[in-house]
User: Fold this.
Amino acid sequence: MGIEILIVDDEVEFAEAFAERLRLRGFTAGIAHSGEQALRIVDEGAVKIMVLDLKMPGMDGLEVLRRVKRSHPLVEVIILSGHGSEVDEAYGRQLGAFSYLRKPADIGDVLEAVKRAEKLLASQA
Amino acid sequence: MKANELAFFGKIAAGVTHELRNVLAIINESNGLMADVLVMLKETPFPQRERFQRSVQKIGEQVQRGVEITSRFNRFAHSMDDPCTEVDLNSIVTQTVSLTKRFAGLQNVELKSALSDHPIMLFINPFRVQMALTRAIDAFVRCMSGSSGSILMLVRESVDSPGLDFYFEGESSDKVVKGAVEAFGEWREFEELASILDLRYDWRAPDIGMALFFPGVPTPERTT
Assistant:
Protein backbone atom coordinates (compact mmCIF):
# COMPACT_ATOMS: atom_id res chain seq x y z
CA MET A 1 0.00 0.00 0.00
CA GLY A 2 1.36 3.46 -0.87
CA ILE A 3 1.60 6.53 1.28
CA GLU A 4 -1.77 8.22 1.69
CA ILE A 5 -0.72 10.90 4.17
CA LEU A 6 2.69 12.45 3.63
CA ILE A 7 4.25 14.40 6.48
CA VAL A 8 6.72 16.96 5.18
CA ASP A 9 8.91 18.32 7.95
CA ASP A 10 12.67 18.74 8.39
CA GLU A 11 12.31 18.10 12.16
CA VAL A 12 13.04 14.35 12.06
CA GLU A 13 11.88 13.55 15.61
CA PHE A 14 8.63 15.42 15.12
CA ALA A 15 7.84 13.77 11.79
CA GLU A 16 8.60 10.27 13.07
CA ALA A 17 6.51 10.57 16.24
CA PHE A 18 3.66 12.20 14.34
CA ALA A 19 3.68 9.55 11.60
CA GLU A 20 3.70 6.82 14.23
CA ARG A 21 0.64 8.32 15.89
CA LEU A 22 -1.21 8.44 12.57
CA ARG A 23 -0.25 4.80 11.83
CA LEU A 24 -1.59 3.76 15.25
CA ARG A 25 -4.90 5.22 14.11
CA GLY A 26 -4.93 3.18 10.92
CA PHE A 27 -3.55 5.67 8.42
CA THR A 28 -0.79 4.92 5.94
CA ALA A 29 1.67 7.67 6.69
CA GLY A 30 5.03 8.48 5.14
CA ILE A 31 7.67 11.10 5.78
CA ALA A 32 9.67 13.54 3.66
CA HIS A 33 12.30 15.72 5.29
CA SER A 34 12.57 18.28 2.50
CA GLY A 35 10.38 19.92 -0.10
CA GLU A 36 12.29 18.31 -2.94
CA GLN A 37 11.86 14.83 -1.45
CA ALA A 38 8.15 15.52 -0.91
CA LEU A 39 7.62 16.43 -4.57
CA ARG A 40 9.33 13.23 -5.70
CA ILE A 41 7.07 11.13 -3.45
CA VAL A 42 3.94 12.96 -4.59
CA ASP A 43 4.92 12.28 -8.21
CA GLU A 44 4.76 8.54 -7.45
CA GLY A 45 1.00 9.02 -7.23
CA ALA A 46 -0.24 7.55 -3.95
CA VAL A 47 -0.34 10.64 -1.74
CA LYS A 48 -3.81 11.97 -1.02
CA ILE A 49 -3.14 14.33 1.87
CA MET A 50 0.01 16.25 2.70
CA VAL A 51 0.76 17.65 6.16
CA LEU A 52 3.27 20.37 5.40
CA ASP A 53 5.67 22.48 7.49
CA LEU A 54 6.42 25.96 6.16
CA LYS A 55 10.00 26.70 7.11
CA MET A 56 12.44 24.12 5.80
CA PRO A 57 15.97 24.34 4.43
CA GLY A 58 15.98 24.52 0.63
CA MET A 59 12.50 24.69 -0.85
CA ASP A 60 10.12 26.19 1.70
CA GLY A 61 6.61 24.97 2.41
CA LEU A 62 4.76 27.64 0.45
CA GLU A 63 6.79 26.78 -2.67
CA VAL A 64 6.04 23.07 -2.14
CA LEU A 65 2.36 23.94 -1.80
CA ARG A 66 2.39 26.01 -4.98
CA ARG A 67 4.06 23.22 -7.00
CA VAL A 68 1.90 20.43 -5.59
CA LYS A 69 -1.36 22.25 -6.26
CA ARG A 70 -0.16 22.98 -9.81
CA SER A 71 0.93 19.44 -10.66
CA HIS A 72 -1.44 17.43 -8.41
CA PRO A 73 -4.47 19.62 -7.68
CA LEU A 74 -6.37 16.77 -6.00
CA VAL A 75 -3.77 16.38 -3.25
CA GLU A 76 -5.10 18.23 -0.21
CA VAL A 77 -2.50 20.10 1.81
CA ILE A 78 -2.77 20.78 5.53
CA ILE A 79 -0.19 23.30 6.71
CA LEU A 80 1.17 22.49 10.18
CA SER A 81 3.78 25.01 11.20
CA GLY A 82 5.23 26.71 14.26
CA HIS A 83 6.58 29.54 12.14
CA GLY A 84 3.71 30.91 10.15
CA SER A 85 2.37 34.41 10.44
CA GLU A 86 -1.16 35.54 9.58
CA VAL A 87 0.23 36.70 6.24
CA ASP A 88 1.64 33.21 5.59
CA GLU A 89 -1.72 31.69 6.50
CA ALA A 90 -3.61 33.97 4.12
CA TYR A 91 -1.08 33.32 1.34
CA GLY A 92 -1.20 29.56 1.99
CA ARG A 93 -4.98 29.53 1.68
CA GLN A 94 -4.73 31.61 -1.48
CA LEU A 95 -2.38 28.96 -2.92
CA GLY A 96 -4.96 26.27 -2.12
CA ALA A 97 -4.07 24.97 1.35
CA PHE A 98 -6.98 22.99 2.74
CA SER A 99 -6.35 23.85 6.37
CA TYR A 100 -3.85 25.71 8.51
CA LEU A 101 -2.79 24.49 11.97
CA ARG A 102 -0.14 25.74 14.35
CA LYS A 103 2.44 23.56 16.06
CA PRO A 104 2.18 21.99 18.49
CA ALA A 105 -1.32 20.93 17.45
CA ASP A 106 -3.70 18.65 19.27
CA ILE A 107 -3.87 15.31 17.44
CA GLY A 108 -7.67 15.63 17.53
CA ASP A 109 -7.50 18.86 15.52
CA VAL A 110 -5.19 17.25 12.96
CA LEU A 111 -7.45 14.20 12.65
CA GLU A 112 -10.47 16.42 12.21
CA ALA A 113 -8.73 18.25 9.34
CA VAL A 114 -7.65 14.93 7.80
CA LYS A 115 -11.20 13.58 7.96
CA ARG A 116 -12.61 16.72 6.33
CA ALA A 117 -9.99 16.41 3.58
CA GLU A 118 -10.87 12.73 3.08
CA LYS A 119 -14.53 13.65 2.78
CA LEU A 120 -13.74 16.29 0.18
CA LEU A 121 -11.58 13.82 -1.77
CA ALA A 122 -14.35 11.21 -1.66
CA SER A 123 -16.85 13.72 -3.02
CA GLN A 124 -14.49 14.48 -5.92
CA ALA A 125 -13.87 10.82 -6.79
CA MET B 1 17.20 51.93 20.91
CA LYS B 2 16.79 52.98 17.29
CA ALA B 3 13.83 51.65 15.28
CA ASN B 4 16.06 49.42 13.13
CA GLU B 5 17.77 48.03 16.25
CA LEU B 6 14.40 47.27 17.82
CA ALA B 7 13.22 45.58 14.64
CA PHE B 8 16.42 43.50 14.58
CA PHE B 9 15.97 42.47 18.21
CA GLY B 10 12.33 41.63 17.51
CA LYS B 11 13.26 39.53 14.48
CA ILE B 12 15.79 37.49 16.46
CA ALA B 13 13.40 37.07 19.40
CA ALA B 14 10.57 35.99 17.07
CA GLY B 15 12.90 33.44 15.45
CA VAL B 16 13.85 32.01 18.83
CA THR B 17 10.20 31.61 19.88
CA HIS B 18 9.46 29.84 16.60
CA GLU B 19 12.27 27.40 17.27
CA LEU B 20 10.97 26.84 20.80
CA ARG B 21 7.58 25.96 19.31
CA ASN B 22 9.30 23.28 17.24
CA VAL B 23 10.88 21.89 20.42
CA LEU B 24 7.48 21.92 22.13
CA ALA B 25 5.95 20.18 19.11
CA ILE B 26 8.49 17.35 19.35
CA ILE B 27 7.84 16.96 23.09
CA ASN B 28 4.10 17.08 22.43
CA GLU B 29 4.14 14.36 19.77
CA SER B 30 6.56 12.13 21.71
CA ASN B 31 4.39 12.49 24.80
CA GLY B 32 1.27 11.88 22.71
CA LEU B 33 2.82 8.68 21.41
CA MET B 34 3.41 7.50 24.99
CA ALA B 35 -0.21 8.35 25.80
CA ASP B 36 -1.37 6.37 22.75
CA VAL B 37 0.66 3.34 23.85
CA LEU B 38 -0.81 3.56 27.36
CA VAL B 39 -4.30 3.51 25.85
CA MET B 40 -3.38 0.50 23.69
CA LEU B 41 -2.18 -1.33 26.82
CA LYS B 42 -5.21 -0.49 28.90
CA GLU B 43 -6.26 -4.15 29.15
CA THR B 44 -2.73 -5.35 29.86
CA PRO B 45 -1.43 -5.51 33.45
CA PHE B 46 1.15 -2.78 33.67
CA PRO B 47 3.12 -1.95 36.84
CA GLN B 48 3.23 1.74 37.75
CA ARG B 49 0.58 2.55 35.14
CA GLU B 50 -0.85 5.45 37.13
CA ARG B 51 2.56 7.03 37.59
CA PHE B 52 3.14 6.92 33.84
CA GLN B 53 -0.29 8.36 33.16
CA ARG B 54 0.24 11.20 35.62
CA SER B 55 3.62 12.03 34.08
CA VAL B 56 2.19 12.01 30.57
CA GLN B 57 -0.58 14.33 31.70
CA LYS B 58 1.86 16.70 33.42
CA ILE B 59 4.09 16.85 30.34
CA GLY B 60 1.03 17.69 28.22
CA GLU B 61 0.02 20.46 30.60
CA GLN B 62 3.52 21.93 30.61
CA VAL B 63 3.64 21.84 26.81
CA GLN B 64 0.46 23.93 26.77
CA ARG B 65 2.01 26.30 29.30
CA GLY B 66 5.08 26.58 27.11
CA VAL B 67 2.90 27.29 24.07
CA GLU B 68 1.11 30.11 25.89
CA ILE B 69 4.39 31.65 27.07
CA THR B 70 6.03 31.47 23.66
CA SER B 71 2.89 32.83 21.96
CA ARG B 72 2.87 35.84 24.28
CA PHE B 73 6.57 36.45 23.76
CA ASN B 74 6.20 36.02 20.02
CA ARG B 75 3.47 38.69 19.90
CA PHE B 76 5.69 40.95 22.01
CA ALA B 77 8.63 40.39 19.65
CA HIS B 78 6.46 41.22 16.65
CA SER B 79 5.35 44.46 18.35
CA MET B 80 8.85 45.72 17.43
CA ASP B 81 8.29 45.13 13.70
CA ASP B 82 6.91 48.58 12.88
CA PRO B 83 7.61 51.89 14.63
CA CYS B 84 3.89 52.74 14.42
CA THR B 85 0.99 50.53 13.50
CA GLU B 86 -2.75 50.21 14.00
CA VAL B 87 -3.34 48.15 17.09
CA ASP B 88 -6.27 47.37 19.39
CA LEU B 89 -5.86 48.82 22.89
CA ASN B 90 -7.49 45.66 24.27
CA SER B 91 -4.67 43.58 22.76
CA ILE B 92 -2.01 45.87 24.20
CA VAL B 93 -3.52 45.62 27.68
CA THR B 94 -3.97 41.83 27.49
CA GLN B 95 -0.40 41.42 26.31
CA THR B 96 1.02 43.74 28.96
CA VAL B 97 -0.86 42.00 31.76
CA SER B 98 0.23 38.55 30.63
CA LEU B 99 3.88 39.59 30.35
CA THR B 100 4.07 41.46 33.67
CA LYS B 101 1.77 39.52 35.97
CA ARG B 102 4.58 37.24 37.09
CA PHE B 103 6.72 40.18 38.25
CA ALA B 104 3.75 41.67 40.09
CA GLY B 105 2.86 38.28 41.57
CA LEU B 106 6.33 38.01 43.10
CA GLN B 107 5.41 41.16 45.09
CA ASN B 108 1.98 39.73 46.05
CA VAL B 109 0.19 42.08 43.68
CA GLU B 110 -2.36 40.69 41.25
CA LEU B 111 -2.80 42.30 37.84
CA LYS B 112 -6.28 42.29 36.33
CA SER B 113 -7.77 43.73 33.19
CA ALA B 114 -11.28 44.65 32.11
CA LEU B 115 -11.49 44.96 28.34
CA SER B 116 -13.90 46.71 26.06
CA ASP B 117 -16.40 44.62 24.08
CA HIS B 118 -15.30 46.45 20.96
CA PRO B 119 -11.88 46.95 19.40
CA ILE B 120 -10.35 50.34 20.19
CA MET B 121 -7.96 50.96 17.37
CA LEU B 122 -4.99 53.26 17.93
CA PHE B 123 -2.23 54.22 15.54
CA ILE B 124 0.74 54.02 17.86
CA ASN B 125 4.07 52.35 18.62
CA PRO B 126 2.89 49.17 20.41
CA PHE B 127 6.31 48.28 21.82
CA ARG B 128 6.75 51.68 23.46
CA VAL B 129 3.19 51.69 24.79
CA GLN B 130 3.78 48.28 26.39
CA MET B 131 7.04 49.57 27.84
CA ALA B 132 5.35 52.70 29.23
CA LEU B 133 2.55 50.66 30.80
CA THR B 134 5.04 48.19 32.23
CA ARG B 135 7.13 50.94 33.80
CA ALA B 136 4.02 52.50 35.37
CA ILE B 137 2.91 49.10 36.67
CA ASP B 138 6.40 48.45 38.07
CA ALA B 139 6.27 51.75 39.93
CA PHE B 140 2.81 51.04 41.35
CA VAL B 141 3.71 47.48 42.31
CA ARG B 142 6.75 48.69 44.25
CA CYS B 143 4.49 50.92 46.35
CA MET B 144 2.02 48.09 46.96
CA SER B 145 4.62 45.45 47.69
CA GLY B 146 3.53 42.91 50.30
CA SER B 147 0.03 44.34 50.63
CA SER B 148 -1.73 41.50 48.70
CA GLY B 149 -3.60 44.10 46.68
CA SER B 150 -4.40 44.21 43.02
CA ILE B 151 -4.22 46.58 40.08
CA LEU B 152 -7.17 46.63 37.72
CA MET B 153 -6.67 48.14 34.27
CA LEU B 154 -9.97 49.09 32.74
CA VAL B 155 -10.12 49.91 29.04
CA ARG B 156 -12.28 52.97 28.52
CA GLU B 157 -14.22 52.87 25.27
CA SER B 158 -15.75 56.33 25.26
CA VAL B 159 -15.62 57.78 21.75
CA ASP B 160 -14.41 61.14 23.08
CA SER B 161 -11.72 59.84 25.36
CA PRO B 162 -10.71 56.21 24.93
CA GLY B 163 -7.99 55.25 27.32
CA LEU B 164 -7.05 53.21 30.30
CA ASP B 165 -7.98 53.64 33.96
CA PHE B 166 -5.89 52.13 36.75
CA TYR B 167 -7.68 51.15 39.94
CA PHE B 168 -5.77 50.02 43.01
CA GLU B 169 -7.62 47.52 45.16
CA GLY B 170 -6.59 46.95 48.75
CA GLU B 171 -4.51 50.13 48.82
CA SER B 172 -5.14 53.86 48.91
CA SER B 173 -4.85 55.17 45.35
CA ASP B 174 -3.38 58.36 46.67
CA LYS B 175 -0.64 56.51 48.50
CA VAL B 176 0.23 54.28 45.56
CA VAL B 177 0.35 56.94 42.88
CA LYS B 178 2.06 59.58 44.98
CA GLY B 179 4.54 57.01 46.24
CA ALA B 180 5.30 55.90 42.71
CA VAL B 181 5.73 59.43 41.44
CA GLU B 182 7.91 60.58 44.31
CA ALA B 183 10.15 57.64 44.94
CA PHE B 184 11.09 55.51 41.98
CA GLY B 185 13.01 55.69 38.71
CA GLU B 186 10.42 53.60 36.88
CA TRP B 187 8.06 56.56 36.99
CA ARG B 188 10.63 58.81 35.36
CA GLU B 189 10.92 56.27 32.53
CA PHE B 190 7.14 56.15 32.23
CA GLU B 191 7.01 59.94 32.02
CA GLU B 192 9.69 60.06 29.34
CA LEU B 193 7.90 57.42 27.24
CA ALA B 194 4.52 59.07 27.81
CA SER B 195 5.98 62.33 26.55
CA ILE B 196 7.42 60.65 23.41
CA LEU B 197 4.13 58.85 22.75
CA ASP B 198 2.00 61.90 23.56
CA LEU B 199 0.18 59.96 26.26
CA ARG B 200 -1.47 62.13 28.88
CA TYR B 201 -2.47 61.08 32.36
CA ASP B 202 -4.45 62.36 35.27
CA TRP B 203 -3.70 60.90 38.66
CA ARG B 204 -6.04 63.07 40.62
CA ALA B 205 -9.26 61.78 39.08
CA PRO B 206 -11.76 60.84 41.81
CA ASP B 207 -11.97 57.11 42.54
CA ILE B 208 -9.37 56.31 39.89
CA GLY B 209 -5.70 55.81 40.65
CA MET B 210 -4.63 57.07 37.27
CA ALA B 211 -6.47 57.79 34.05
CA LEU B 212 -4.41 57.50 30.87
CA PHE B 213 -5.41 59.21 27.63
CA PHE B 214 -4.14 58.32 24.20
CA PRO B 215 -2.92 60.67 21.44
CA GLY B 216 -5.38 62.92 19.71
CA VAL B 217 -7.86 62.55 22.51
CA PRO B 218 -8.73 65.56 24.68
CA THR B 219 -7.89 65.23 28.37
CA PRO B 220 -10.83 66.25 30.55
CA GLU B 221 -10.41 69.01 33.10
CA ARG B 222 -8.64 67.78 36.18
CA THR B 223 -10.81 67.22 39.22
CA THR B 224 -8.98 68.31 42.33
Remarks:
- The domain at 5-124 of chain A is CATH 3.40.50.2300 (Rossmann fold).
- Chain A has one domain: 5-124.
- DSSP finds five helices and five strands in chain A.
- The interface with chain B takes residues 11, 13-14, 17-18, 20-21, 24, 55, 82-83, 85, 102-105, 107 of chain A (CB under 8 Å).
